[in-house]
Design a protein that fits this description.
The complex is a heteropentamer. Chain A contains 16 helices and 19 strands. Helix content of chain A is 33%, strand content 22%. By secondary structure, chain A is an alpha+beta fold. Chain B has a domain at 3-81 and 198-317: 3-Layer(aba) Sandwich (Rossmann fold). Chain B is built from nine helices and twelve strands. In chain B, helix 3 packs across helix 4 (122-135) and helix 5 (152-163) runs parallel beside helix 6 (182-197). In chain C, a hairpin with a 2-residue loop joins strand 4 (74-79) and strand 5 (82-83). Chain C has helices spanning 21-25, 59-66, 89-98, 116-126, 132-145, 151-155, 164-176, 194-211, 222-228, 246-251, 256-264, 304-308; strands spanning 6-16, 32-43, 48-52, 74-79, 82-83, 99-102, 182-186, 214-219, 231-236, 239-245, 313-317, 320-323. In chain C, strands 6-7-8-3-9-10-12-11 form an eight-stranded mixed sheet, sandwiched between helices. In chain C, strands 2-1-4-5 form a four-stranded antiparallel sheet. The two termini of chain C are 26 Å apart. In chain C, helix 4 runs parallel beside helix 7 (164-176) and helix 7 runs parallel beside helix 8 (194-211). The chains are: A alpha+beta, B alpha/beta, C alpha/beta, D mainly alpha, E mainly alpha. At the A-D interface, helix 1, strand 10, helix 6, helix 13 and strand 16 of A face helix 3, helix 4, strand 2, helix 6 and helix 8 of D.
């Protein structure tokens, strides 16, 4: 009636309805498909592990991060290894070994039945080739070899001799690290071979490798030792903990490993549908204080900051009980550890802090002004909360004003090395499990330039050098205790907390074994 | 009687108010007759043209009236019935040849389509398209051109070719030459005249009364949405009865007329709020207070076939 | 005859055809649209010359080039004895005051965001002819003068409040406030409703009388030309093909094109006329000007000479010139 | 004509070069404003001796003067060499990453793009044909709401509803664990079809649905608006009435109107694609999608100069190619375009 | 008074899009009031942690509390300051650079114009968020730096719009008329062209603000905008995300809704303005 109007034509419906219907159909098929098969049929021979870490570099000559080392530990093996779940060294590729008197020459005798995953025999020459390769490539972790090993020789097909630069009492623990693992001849001889999947002589071999997406391990048929309990391990890489947790709760993965957020762990624990396995860890967090620049060059200021910190509150609030307070740089449970900071300052000792601040010339009207730095991604989401909590605790004294600053990791590290930050947060994963690794890099003036605290004390240097060469654990322990006392007195670092490790698994997953070395050996895993 | 329009009213429901585009328009067109509608822009002459085809653009709406074409009220037909008539019985050409062809399609496809949608097979339509182009003095290869490759005059010829596809009973030409130069205008008018010669009635819209003078049989004068005068060319031009018609004739510069032109004082009214009474009264020299501004004049037949809506038809003569 | 106010000699304006990147790369020679291709004429003080032609004949370009709103390619423009063709923009400014232009489209020639009063006053400020207040006063007077009353109410209105006819009055007011001696009226009434045209023409005529204003009246409508012009010049494809006194040209057109134009104009007074000259086709593209007489492809009288030789303007009667090998008189 | 088009494409393609150059230069210098570098990021808190640090810097080529670094990289780009990563790991060709990550982004982008154009067309045409009615108003509201949806938030809500709550769809990644797919193009859906892998096909489509919907819906708003406005415009034009007056059936008229209204939409597509890639960063982050966006964000964390530069250049190139394709499509669709 | 009335008429008059305009302005006004009077409106210190963690919305905590026991309502209220600050600084910077550059470039044309256009087009065509991310990371997190990063990607928006409009206005008759009366270039640019750009600039301004709000949120979502404990919507959304799985919906819901409401408010205003502008002329 009123002119032509498209309203009544409705070609839309006719034209697009089929498309819409098809879309809806596909959608429902897909959706229902997942309800039906979402749980998936039980594949007992496969276990899927989710991680948020990355495998950076499959070349042990260059890999220097925790998770990659774990993978290398599963597809390779060293001459010696830790007995599962302990700090006890047991034979690996070498069935026995000898050491000379001053522990500078170490001789290892290989097993005769060694083969790489593809069946290529593994001989002493392969060990030498691998070690020399690390020394040549000079990658990140190369110092673990070059700082200690002068040269290495193959006496015959089954005998390897290491000549060390200086006596090293803890050489066997060094040998458990990936730079010492023999690698398959396929690895490029003198350059980094990041995506090489040939591996070494470990219980597993890599069968699929899609960077940042998926890594598939299958049992190595030529492994000399016991066959892994589970034929196939799939590692899924997640970008963040939330999606990993979702996948776990959705049943897409069997195990959520490194690293769920404290809050996730807490609520999963409360929920009780999944198993939460807690393992002590050697990971430590601490505050660095610049001893060279005002106002932290004043030892009273550093002590006051140390006194005002309440580690229990941090552990509870920021980390929701997934960490434990730490009162020394040497972690809880390691021999020679002493709670030096607790003894000297206690926790959240505001009175002492105020007193020290007053002695340093500060008051409520003339507060100490400091900049607290943190890095937002490297240590995870909790880092910002940690910084906030420290700010609050320090400001509780009424005499400190804290400004929080942050920088991305690459810049942050540069600032640290150049000593451009005042008060800043860092963390430490051990390279090898020895008190030396928790003291020398921090306190020895020739080894701590990376930390940027500018700390130097000749007495400490001397104590640490001595401790390195001694072989008796008791004697060494005494020296480390002394060093810790000095640390608490001079406060170039304030230890905060020590991490724990958490593995969350589906009910039917068994055989999670993680030792003090924090490495997860998948070979013991199985599903019921 | 080919077409009879009765009491047709069209309103535009715009955001700023209701524009009464045309109100109470009644007239009729005989077979083979050429009726020209003149008036200023906004007087409703095109609106009525659109309403006959029932294609008043949104937000316009036909609010009342009948359009009886060959004894059928077009406004009551179903879509399909109306579609059958459009382009076949009644054709239309538009003012702006730049925009009245689809810029994305070859003109040939558009010409052929007129025929195929009315049931002529594609092949036959193609042949006839060539003939049509010849009829409007265009080489047949123009069928392969896109509209932008043609001049305004050529495009208007294409429009006429399409209008001629079925020897329509009625051609509605909505200011088809406004955008063209005089020489081209002349040739387009010739084409329309040729169509008329074949028996087609013409509803021609223009704002140029002199253009109406030359070829029409009848002239309808519209002012502010109303039909104010209707009659044969002679009646209108030689004996205009409405003061507006007279003023319009006097306002047009004419090459063959000596003497001055005279402007019409004032401005056309805002159709959202048209003047009361006779809509022309604010500009009319004859307006009488109390009558013209209060009472709307009837549209009455004053002499045979000569209608006017004025309280004082021809009143200036004393 | 006294010295003419405006003298145009052999004016040319070629626009380069925008070449595609490809053509540039292929080093194809640049092509030109010869919009104005050698135009000469004079206008005396107080005289109105109508420049008539179909769209695309170059009449608008000619008008603008004369005011140097477009830079001429060649030729001379002499205004009141001074050659302004090569003047710098700064040196040209005094002449801007004396020469004005009125455009065809009253909708586009006013800034939508400027009050019309300010638009009229602005030229005074540009030429420092008045202070702000004074300029306002003068603008108000001018508004009244062009019939936009009450003027103080109109002063504060914006163009979109006005009808086309009213806008054109504003445009005229803006041009006239400087009391120019010469104005180019470019199709000044062709977009105005028929009922309003006459009044605009009357307004222009009144200024002509008041200021002794010379006008170049550009139009496609000969009837309008007849109404106001002293002389008529007919342009075709960038050239003047005929020029002469209005009466003379209309009564005795010498060029077939002029004749055809005149015959094509619809008229109430002469409804059923005989057509003597029928021309076909359309104006060709100015980028491809036909050789010889540029009108020859459409001319019913064209012969070999027309196809090869370009005709010169010759005087056929007093002051009446035509460029045709076969003039009709 | 065909030759003309070919040359036009070539020249138009060459115009991508300045774009790449400008963005490379910008990013190159921006990256070096602040202290810190990828080697630092790698070394981190590790106790590495200064000589070895120096060695690492040398390996990464970071101890050369800035301008040398600038031109070295540029030279590489000219040979299609995007350099090697400088961190985690060091020395792996950036191209390896791009060729692995880009298909993921492309696949997400294609689907999201399809969703957005389809939704935009449907809602826009609906709005235009019912101009002034409630339908029109709701379509316009849809357009604005879609446009202002915050991708991570919207994504999370979808994850929550369809993943956590209903368990219908996976919330992250591209394939279920353990699904084996032989990749050819890196576009998983296509690869699944090519290899006839039904399991992978279902799995990859299911993984795509949520991210593609998130991104697609957000981007559809702009299309809705444009399609509606163009369509309203076109429908008011004479040629539409002229079609009607010729008795052309309404459905055909609507189709012709749509074609005309679609042309400006094509020009929008190029730009929308760039916006889409930006949105892909947030989408990929929200859904742990292993594409270029997450790659870039990760690499920025490490300050991996070469990787960031490479990714930016690749993005610039890709965006250039898209706009080239859009231009060509435009030239084909619209006979008025001259080239 | 008269001007105020006209503005009111322009904004609220019975014109198309009045509803959109009113809704948009109301929200913007609310957020503005929140920002200005934050200290009086917020019941708690937004950075103060407490033992009352993960409290759901209640009379005591209108929007609940987060993992550190901070009051979410107070954080939302204070967070409005950051968003508005960043967005307006960013928009102002980009307008201050983009508009004059576009005007001059478009008006005079030539080689500089062409070079500038290539640069601007390149940035314009590049995914804005990606560029903003790169710049924000490099500059480090602070509201001002974020504003700079965002402004960087909007300069081309203004430049291109102003340049394009200038080009088309330059060819308009009224500009030619200005030449004809002898006006100088500067006068033409500022008296004739710029006022005609104003409505479009206003529309682009509101739309780019809407867009910038989302960009800011995107940057803070990636952790690139502010350092804690500064309250910021995007950042709060990011840190609240993991807790969505535990059912603490208010940590994500409120910041997300605020971001979108504010962006939507500006988009609605822009849409309504757009209609008014296209209606106003002609």
């Amino acid at each position: 009636m009123h002119g032509l109007k498209y309203a009544s034509v409705n070609p839309m419906k006719r034209r697009y309805l089929p498309a819409l219907l098809i879309f809806l159909m596909v959608f429902s098929v897909v959706a229902s498909g997942c309800i039906g098969g979402g749980g998936g049929e039980e594949k007992t021979s496969t276990i899927v592990i989710g991680v948020t870490d990355k495998v950076t570099d499959l070349d042990p000559a260059n890999a220097y991060d925790f998770y990659t080392w774990e993978v290398l530990n599963n597809v390779m093996e060293g001459l010696v290894k830790y007995k599962p779940g302990t700090l006890e060294i047991e034979p690996g590729l070498a069935e026995k070994w000898e050491v000379n008197e001053d522990s500078t020459v170490w001789t290892f005798y290989l097993r005769k039945d060694l083969k790489f995953a593809d069946g290529t025999p593994l001989k002493a020459q392969d060990v030498v080739r691998s070690i020399e390769r690390v020394m040549k490539i000079q990658g990140d972790p190369a110092w673990l070899v070059t700082d200690f090993v002068d040269r290495v020789e193959a006496k015959d097909d089954y005998t390897v001799v290491f000549y060390l630069k200086q006596p090293t009492s803890y050489f066997l623990s060094l040998l458990t690290t990936p730079p010492y693992f023999p690698v398959h001849p396929n690895y490029a001889p003198d350059q980094i071979d990041s995506d090489q999947t040939a591996g070494g002589a470990g219980p597993y071999m890599i069968t699929k490798w899609v960077r940042d997406e998926e890594l598939v391990l299958e049992a190595n048929p030529n492994y000399y030792g016991e066959k892994p309990k589970t034929e196939k391990i799939i590692i899924k890489f997640y970008r963040d903990a939330s999606t990993m947790r979702l996948a776990l709760q959705n049943g897409e993965i069997d195990i959520a490993w490194r690293t769920l957020r404290p809050s996730d762990i807490n609520s999963l624990k409360e929920e009780g549908k999944l198993k939460v396995i807690e393992v002590p860890g050697g990971f430590i967090r601490y505050v660095c204080l610049n001893t060279k620049t005002e106002p932290t060059s004043n030892v009273k200021v550093r002590q006051a900051l140390a006194a005002a910190i309440d580690r229990k509150e941090i552990a509870e609030k920021v980390f929701m009980g997934t960490v434990e307070p730490l009162y020394s740089l040497i972690p809880n449970g390691m021999w020679s550890h002493k709670d030096v900071f607790k003894d000297k300052y206690g926790d959240g000792n505001l009175e002492l802090a105020k007193k020290l601040l007053q002695e340093a010339g500060y008051s409520e009207s003339n507060p100490l002004e400091i900049q607290l730095w943190y890095t937002p991604t490297h240590y995870g989401d909790t880092e910002a909360d940690l910084a906030q909590m420290l700010k609050e605790q320090w400001e509780k004294t009424g005499m400190i004003k804290v400004t929080i600053k942050s920088a991305e990791w690459g810049t942050y590290v540069d600032y640290a090395r150049k000593g451009q930050m005042q008060v800043y947060l860092l963390g430490w994963y051990p390279d090898y499990l020895d008190p030396d690794d928790y003291t020398t890099p921090f306190l020895k003036s020739t080894a701590n330039s990376w930390a940027g605290t500018g700390y130097a004390n000749p007495t400490v240097d001397e104590l640490l050098t001595k401790a390195q060469t001694l072989t008796s654990q008791d004697e060494r322990a005494k020296l480390y205790e002394q060093v810790q006392e000095i640390l608490a007195e001079e406060v170039p670092y304030i230890p905060l907390i020590q991490g724990k490790l958490f593995v969350v698994t589906q009910e039917n997953v068994k055989g999670v074994i993680i030792g003090p070395d924090m490495i997860f050996h998948y070979a013991h895993l199985y599903k019921e | 009687m080919l077409l009879e329009v009765k009491n047709l009213s069209i309103y535009y429901y715009t955001l700023t108010g209701v524009v009464k585009g045309a109100e109470g328009v009644s007239f009729s067109i005989d077979r083979g007759e050429w009726v020209t509608f003149v008036g200023e822009s906004g007087s409703g002459k095109s609106t009525v043209a659109h309403a006959i085809m029932n294609i008043v653009p949104s937000p316009g709406r036909i609010v009342s009236g009948e359009v009886v074409f060959q004894d059928r009220d077009l406004l009551k037909l179903s879509k399909e019935e109306l579609r059958e008539i459009r382009g076949k019985e009644i054709s239309m050409i538009f003012q702006d040849p730049m925009t009245s062809l689809d810029p994305l399609r070859k003109v040939g496809d558009q010409v052929i389509e007129v025929m195929t949608v009315h049931g002529i097979p594609e092949e036959e339509a193609r042949e006839r398209a060539k003939e049509l182009l010849e009829k409007v003095n265009l080489p047949p290869d123009r069928l392969d051109y896109y509209p932008h490759q043609l001049s305004g005059g050529q495009r208007q010829r294409i429009s006429i070719a399409m209008a001629m596809a079925f020897n329509p009973k009625l051609l509605i030409a909505d200011e088809p030459t406004t955008a063209l130069d005089v020489i081209v205008q002349d040739s387009i008018m010739d084409l329309i005249e040729a169509l008329k010669a074949e028996g087609t009635s013409i509803y021609f819209v223009t704002h140029d009364i002199s253009l109406a003078a030359e070829r029409s049989d009848k002239i309808a004068v519209m002012y502010a949405g109303k039909l104010v005068e209707f009659g044969t060319v002679e009646q209108i031009l030689e004996n205009p009865l409405h003061p507006y018609t007279k003023a319009l004739i006097e306002a047009v510069p004419d090459l063959w007329k000596e003497g001055k032109v005279r402007a019409i004082p004032g401005y056309p009214p805002d159709l959202r709020n048209p003047p009361s009474g006779c809509r022309f009264h604010p500009r009319c020299p004859l307006a009488k207070a109390g009558l013209c501004d209060a009472e709307e004049p009837e549209f009455e037949e004053v002499e045979k076939g000569h209608y006017v809506a004025c309280h004082f038809p021809g009143g200036w003569r004393g | 005859m006294s010295e003419p106010l405006l003298k145009v000699e052999n004016l040319k304006k070629y626009f380069p055809v925008r070449r595609s990147i490809l053509e540039t790369l292929r080093k194809e020679p640049p092509r030109y649209v010869k919009a104005v291709d050698g135009v000469s004429f004079e206008i005396a003080r107080g005289e109105v010359l109508a420049l008539i032609g179909e769209s695309g004949c170059g009449k608008t370009t000619a008008g603008r080039t004369i005011l140097r709103l477009i830079e001429p390619t060649e030729g001379k423009i002499i205004f009141d004895g001074t050659e302004i063709t090569k003047l710098s923009h700064e040196a040209l400014r005094p002449f801007r005051r004396r020469m004005q232009i009125i455009f065809q489209d009253p909708y586009a020639s006013l800034s939508p965001r400027m009050k019309i009063g300010d638009a009229i006053a602005h030229p005074l400020l540009v030429h420092s002819l008045a202070e702000k207040e004074e300029a306002r006063e003068m603008a108000l007077k001018m508004l009244k003068r062009v019939g936009l009353t009450p003027e103080d109410e109109f002063y504060d209105r914006y163009p979109h409040h006005l009808s086309g006819g009213q806008r054109q009055r504003v445009v005229i007011a803006r041009a006239m406030i400087l009391k120019p001696e010469f104005v180019v009226a470019d199709e000044a009434v062709s977009m105005i409703d028929v009922s309003m045209r006459a009044s605009i023409l009357e307004l222009l005529e009144s200024f002509r009388k008041e200021y002794n204003l010379s006008q170049l009246f550009i139009t496609h409508d000969i009837a309008v030309g007849k109404l106001i012009a002293d002389r008529i010049a007919v342009m075709y494809l960038g050239k003047i093909v005929e020029i002469g006194p209005t009466e003379e040209v209309l009564k005795h057109p010498a060029h077939p094109y002029t004749a055809a134009l005149i015959e094509a104009v619809p008229s109430i007074a002469r409804r059923k006329k005989e057509k003597k000259i029928r021309i076909t086709g359309e104006v060709p593209n100015a980028a491809n000007v036909p050789p010889g007489c540029r009108f020859h492809p459409r001319c019913p009288f064209a012969d070999e000479k027309c196809r090869s030789e370009e005709p010169k303007l010759i005087e056929v009667s007093h002051n009446h010139f035509v460029a045709c090998h076969h003039p009709l008189i | 004509m065909a030759r003309g088009l070919g040359q036009y494409i070539l020249i138009r393609a060459l115009m991508i070069i300045p774009t790449i150059l400008i963005l490379y230069t910008l990013v190159f210098f921006f990256l070096r404003i602040l202290p810190g570098n990828p080697v630092m990021a790698v070394v981190g808190t590790k106790n590495i001796p200064p000589e070895q640090l120096e060695h690492l810097m040398e390996m990464a080529g970071l101890n050369k003067p800035l301008y040398v670094q600038y031109f070295d990289y540029l030279k590489g780009i000219l040979h299609g060499d995007f350099g090697v990563t400088l961190a985690f790991p060091m020395g792996k060709p950036v191209w390896d990453y791009i060729s692995q990550r880009f298909p993921a982004t492309l696949e997400l982008a294609i689907w999201a793009f399809t969703v957005s154009v389809l939704l935009g067309l449907i809602t826009g045409v609906l709005g235009a044909t019912k101009k002034g009615t409630k339908v029109d108003t709701s379509m316009r509201l849809y357009s604005i709401i879609a446009y202002t949806l915050f991708i991570p938030w919207f994504g999370m809500m979808l994850q929550y509803v369809f993943g956590i709550h209903l368990h219908w769809l996976p919330t992250s990644g591209r394939l279920d664990p353990g699904v084996d797919l032989h990749t050819i193009t890196g576009l998983y859906v296509l690869d699944s079809i090519l290899t006839g892998n039904w399991e992978a096909l279902v799995s990859s489509i299911r993984h795509l649905i949520l991210p593609a919907l998130t991104l697609g819906i957000v981007l559809s708003g702009a299309y809705t608006r444009l399609v509606r406005n163009n369509m309203v415009d076109v429908l008011s034009q004479d040629f539409i009435r002229s079609y009607q007056a010729r008795g052309v059936p309404d459905r055909k008229v609507l189709w012709y109107a749509l074609k005309n209204a679609f042309i400006p939409v094509v020009t929008l597509m190029g730009l929308q694609f760039a916006i889409l890639l930006g949105g892909a960063v947030l989408t990929e982050t929200t859904f742990s999608w292993p594409g270029m966006g997450t790659f870039l964000v990760d690499r920025i964390d490490y300050r991996d100069y070469n990787a960031i530069q490479g990714a930016v250049i690749f993005f610039a190139f890709f965006v250039g190619v898209i706009s080239l394709i859009v231009d060509i499509v435009y030239a084909i669709l619209d006979p008025r375009v001259k080239y | 008074m008269e001007i105020a009335g006209k503005i009111a008429e322009f904004l609220f008059g019975k014109k198309p899009g009045r509803g959109m305009m009113l809704f948009g302005l109301t929200i913007v006004l609310i957020v503005l009031i929140m920002a200005i009077f934050a200290p009086w409106i917020a019941p708690y210190d937004p950075t103060q942690s407490s033992d009352d963690v993960f409290a759901p919305p209640s009379g005591e905590h209108l929007m609940g509390t987060n993992r550190l026991g901070q009051d979410m309502f107070s954080r939302i209220v204070w967070g409005s300051r950051i968003v508005l600050y960043v967005v307006f600084i960013a928009t102002l910077i980009s307008m201050a650079i983009g508009i004059p550059l576009g005007l001059v470039s478009g008006y005079y044309g030539g080689k500089t114009d062409r070079a500038l256009s290539v640069v601007m087009d390149s940035i314009y065509a590049f995914p804005a968020l990606i560029l903003a991310i790169v710049i924000a990371v490099v500059l480090g997190p602070s509201p001002l730096n974020t504003a700079i990063a965002i402004s960087f990607v909007y300069v081309p928006t203004y430049f291109r719009m102003v340049r394009g409009q200038t080009l088309s206005l330059k060819g308009q008759l009224f500009v030619e008329a200005a030449h004809a009366i002898g006006a100088k270039n500067r006068e033409i640019m500022f008296k004739y062209i710029l006022p005609n750009l104003a409505p479009t600039i206003l529309v682009v301004f509101t739309l780019s603000v809407a867009d910038a709000i989302l960009t800011e949120a995107g940057l803070s979502f990636l952790g690139l905008s502010v350092t804690p404990p500064t309250p910021d919507w995007g950042y709060d959304l990011r840190v609240g995300q993991p807790f969505l799985l535990d059912g603490y919906w208010w940590l994500v819901f409120f910041p997300g809704v605020m971001i979108m409401l504010l962006a939507m408010a500006f988009a609605l205003i822009g849409e309504a303005l757009n209609e008014r502008v296209s209606l106003g002329t002609r």
